[in-house]
Specification:
- By secondary structure, this protein is α+β, with helices and mostly antiparallel strands.
- The protein folds into 2 domains: 140 residues, Beta-Lactamase (2-Layer Sandwich); 89 residues, Jelly Rolls.
- It is 29% helix and 33% strand.
- It has 6 helices and 15 strands.
- The relative contact order is 0.13.
Length: 299
């Protein structure tokens, strides 16, 4: 290589050096779009409908804690908006569910209450995409603090997949749905829906103790056991039933019925209208549930 070529190459390297340095000092990261924020709210709203939880306020912020979207359901209280925003902002900025901070304070870590712009009340959850925190969702005004968190978890779990609801303005998609392993694992930690549409639902279900008798008037449950054991009672007659949500009944127990011991790998199909309950649960009992929703009858 002659000296002239060496000088040209050296000059080129010098010219490219600033650009290379600039690239090295920046990183690409996923961000929460307005459409994504609306998806989160639609999923939380659908969960509120399923749990018969009117009065909730749902807020979504970006990873800097800036408000992106907010929806107030009918019957909420005046302070609900500010509280839900505070929960969402706390979850996003601290990258942890707000329940963690409420529990710490209840265990005498009261110094945390001196932090500014901090709402340590259960019901705020970080929103993750591709393993990165891109925002937070906060819910206030549901029936309980636990229900606030359940609605927020349903919203956070929806990002990156289509969500259909019975209300207007719900996102929809005809594309295949991909549920990332990290999102599925997070859903099983709490036992929340993975996907809900008008025709079917997919739930990451978790039980740590015996449940109530359940009757789904339109949903046929298809269960696949992933971990743990339990006894499933089906049929018979549910005792002291009451309606807890549209087309959902619960009872104290089941009189009669047939009992089966469930283990990993078992599959069970429970037609709509059939009473069932879980007992003798070894925690955690994890199982996928696909709910096939029958059309409403027309009289």
């Amino acid at each position: 290589m002659n000296n002239r070529i060496r000088r040209i190459l050296a000059a080129g390297m010098v010219a490219l050096a600033p650009a290379a340095t600039a690239i090295a000092q920046t990183i690409d990261k996923p961000t929460l779009s307005l459409d994504g924020a609306r998806r989160v709210i639609a999923a939380a709203r659908a969960e509120a409908t399923a749990k018969n939880a009117p009065g909730a306020v749902i807020a979504v912020v970006d990873d800097g804690g800036n408000l992106m979207a907010l929806e107030r359901l009918d019957g909420t209280f005046a302070a609900g908006a500010n509280i839900s925003i505070g929960k969402a902002r706390t979850a996003a900025l601290f990258k942890k569910p707000t329940r963690v901070f409420e529990e710490l304070i209840n265990k005498s870590r009261t110094a945390m209450t001196t932090l500014t712009d901090f709402t340590p009340l259960q019901g705020g959850v970080p929103i993750a995409l591709d393993g990165k925190i891109v925002g937070g969702v906060g819910v206030s005004g549901a029936a309980s603090a636990q229900q606030d968190e359940e609605l927020a978890l349903a919203g956070a779990a929806s990002l990156g997949r289509p969500v259909a609801t019975t209300g207007s303005g719900a996102p929809s998609s005809h594309a295949a749905t991909y549920l990332a392993a990290a999102d599925v694992a997070a859903a099983f930690m709490k036992g929340v829906p993975l996907l809900e549409t008008a025709g079917y639902k997919v739930h990451a279900s978790r039980r740590d103790k015996e449940g109530q008798a359940e009757i789904h008037t339109r949903d046929t449950d298809i269960l696949y056991v992933l971990e743990g054991t339990a006894t499933l009672v089906t049929g018979g007659e549910a005792v002291n039933t009451k309606t807890v949500a549209p087309e959902e009944l619960r009872g104290d127990t089941i009189a009669g019925g047939e009992s089966r011991a469930l283990v990993k790998g078992d599959v069970v199909v429970i037609p709509n209208g059939v009473p069932h309950l879980f007992k003798d649960v070894t925690a955690p009992f994890l199982y996928f549930v696909v709910k096939a929703t029958a059309p409403r009858s027309v009289s």
